[in-house]
Specification:
The protein has 12 helices and 8 strands. It has about 325 residues and is α/β, with parallel strands linked by helices. An 8-stranded parallel sheet has the order 1-2-3-4-5-6-7-8.
């Protein structure tokens, strides 16, 4: 029997351990999720920003500083524990902000880097030792990236056992279907594979993603629902069928991410999401039972190589 979601208006703050009801930087709302999260819950898509590191020329998003300490506040509010830091398009191939976040976060974090494929083996080996487990290729907002990089970068990272995380328009995804099927590494589509709710069952790219998921060649991040919704909100009921299509196709290949600190929202392009409500929506899509725990804990443990859940270490915030 699946747990019942408690309405947000009556959910006590004590439902999550050590809940911080203060406003969290770059996240709307103050309440915790309606359903307490399972131990070891992972946020598989977040960024950090630090003005001490220069943006790449031509960067389209220039968010304010967002630190590990800021994100810890969101963890305290929601009950999330593990995190995957992704180098954003702002910094091009400069992975230093992401790597500093990994060092500060410790064993509960993994990283997704951005590379151009010319790096020496020793450089990639150091990234792996620091917790990197994948490379992102951003064909939507990235500077100097193009679809011809898919196979060379995949071949470059295959010996490390990494995955290739992709953000690409639906038409580009459709056009690269044959290449995606032939890559020597798993593919991770972030932000609902950049498909809008109207694309579900209609755009050929949706069928490509479902086929790759069923074949065990791809993963999908239920992140950035507010980015793909025409209403710019994860509350959009039209997201339900799209999310369920991925969960039904391959429940063992789905992870969740908040997309904190929501760079497009801080740039004024969308309303700032409530990240606890984003988790509530995941609970609705999964039914809030074993599948909820699978998406938040077991699936990211497999994809990113997390070990068994243990007692969290004591932290001293600076």
């Amino acid at each position: 029997m699946q747990p019942t979601l408690v309405p947000r208006t009556t959910q006590p703050l004590a439902a999550c351990d050590a809940v911080d009801a203060r406003p969290v930087p770059f996240s709307a709302g103050t309440l915790p999720p309606a359903m307490p999260l399972p131990a070891g819950a992972c946020d598989a898509h977040i960024h950090v920003y630090d003005a001490r590191f220069p943006a790449v020329p031509g960067a389209r998003l220039m968010p304010p500083d967002a630190s590990v300490a800021d994100y810890r506040r969101l963890q305290q509010r929601t009950g999330l524990r593990r995190a995957v830091f992704v180098t954003p398009s702002t910094y091009g191939t400069d992975n230093r902000p992401m790597l500093q976040a990994l060092q500060a976060f410790g064993d509960d974090a993994r990283g997704v880097a951005v590379i151009d494929g010319t790096e020496a083996d020793a450089v990639l080996a150091r990234l792996h030792a620091q917790g990197v487990r994948g490379v992102r290729l951003n064909l939507s907002l990235g500077v100097g990236t193009h679809a011809d990089m898919l196979m060379p970068i995949a071949q470059r990272i295959a010996p490390l056992g990494w995955h290739l995380q992709l953000l690409m328009p639906a038409d580009v995804l459709q056009g690269q279907a044959a290449v995606l099927s032939a890559l020597p590494v798993p593919v991770v589509f972030d932000h609902f594979a950049r498909l809008s709710p109207a694309d579900a069952g209609r755009h050929p790219a949706h069928a490509v993603v479902l086929q790759l998921l069923r074949a065990g060649r791809a993963w999908i991040k239920l992140s950035g629902g507010y980015l793909v919704s025409p209403t710019h909100s994860t509350e959009d009921p039209a997201l339900d069928d799209l999310a369920r299509s991925f969960l039904d196709a391959a429940p063992e290949r789905v992870v969740w991410g908040s997309d904190w600190p929501h760079a497009t929202a801080t740039a004024g392009l969308q309303p700032l999401p409530d990240d606890a409500r984003q988790l509530d929506r995941l609970a609705q899509w999964t039914g809030g039972g074993e599948l909820f725990a699978q998406v938040l804990v077991r699936n990211p443990a497999v994809l990113y190589g997390f070990g068994p859940v243990s007692d969290p270490p004591e932290r001293t915030e600076t």
